[in-house]
Amino acid sequence: MTSKEKKKVQFVIKSSKFCNLRCRYCYEYAELGNREAIAPEQLDKMYAHIASYYSRLDCPVDIQFIWHGGEPLLQHPDYYWQTFDRQQQFFGELSSSVTNTVQTNLTVLNKQHIHLLREGFDGVGVSVDLFGGLRVNQAEVDSLEIVLANMDRLRSEKVNFGCITVLTKLNLSYVEEIYKFYEKTKIPFRVLPLFNGAFDGQHQGYEISASEVLNAYRTLFDLWLESKNPVIVRPIVDYIKQVIRHYTSNAKPDFYNKREWEYIYLVNVNGDVYSYADAYNSEFCHGNLFTTPMENIIFGSGHEKAIIAAEKRMASACHSCEYFGSCSGYPIAEESVIHNQVDADGNAHCTKEKGILQYIEKRLKETGIINPITRQVNIKQEYISKHILGLDIAV
Ligand code: SF4
User: How far apart are the CA of 37 and the centre of ligand 1, in A?
Assistant: First the structure.
């Protein structure tokens, strides 16, 4: 590696699958009662392997740990305080480039959690769907009320957070209400289309098609565009950036190159590492980060297999796409499998992303923000910084 450009890598850590909720769509559903957690010594081994590899590269690297579950806040806060201390020891000079974010269902929240979320983690993501009633506890009681109350508490305690709302058939007709809620509360959020479940038939009754997702994206974009005080809504603002880049003559093209650099690794409770697209598919397991050096994982046969499959998906959909270079192709490489946009031959179909890019382009031309003749973008840089680039938080 010779480039001095700063790079970024994320490790999504499944600290434990244990959870107090039983969200009906959860892809960890079968394991939510399992209390097993990654042991501190295993985390140490993982840090040693990661630190050893990234500290030897000839470029600066931001290393982000994203703590996932199950419900990660069911581990005692000391679990995290101790591991943050251990990170300092293992990463040494690299420590200033290491950050930790957590994705929580926010159903358990005491003073210790608030302290941990405010002072320990660098970013907090809250999972809340607002409508649909799929995020239930073991007694099938909707968790929404308690989560909203805890969100209020976080806000009054000045803990910054963003939200993730999973899009299903059951909250699809509430997209406007969802946007207005976040706009009013000024909470940045991400909509996440329903992804593959833990078993066949899990999503029966609330499955959502790619064209339904696309319609929801269009509505969200229009709401964002018409809003006087737009809120950061992902992935919509990312798509807006891509369309603006498409019309920026000197913009550096952005091509997702999984072979050269992997952005996200998922680390299971047992240390097994996967690409996002092939999570828990043993055929594509890259190796075990508790026992194996990072370079062996990166250059191993499991990773190579995942790279070849992702390259095939990109070749089938992205190489002929007019947006390729403005859009990096990442959605097809890493997200098309879990969103069922890949056929039996391994070829991908880009309905959602290409569709929303085309829609945004059309709407920005209609509103005069993009001049179709001069190809100039008439939008102030401050506006882009404030409403499109937004806050760098864990959504
Ligand atoms: S819009 Fe879809 S097909 Fe086009 S580059 Fe992006 S991911 Fe690939």
Answer: 37
